Amino acid sequence: MATLLLRLAAPLQAWGADSKFETRKTGREPTKSGVIGLLAAALGLRRDEREALLRLTGLRFGVRVEREGQLLVDYHTAKTQDEKTSYVTYRHYLQDAVFLAGIESEDAALLQQLQQALLHPAFPLYLGRRCCPPTLPLCLGVRPGSLQEVLQAEPPLCPGRQSRILLDADPLKPGTAPQRDVPVSFDPHHRQYGYRSVRELWQKVPDSPEKTEHDPFREL
Question: For the whole prediction, is pTM greater than 0.90?
Answer without folding.
Answer: no
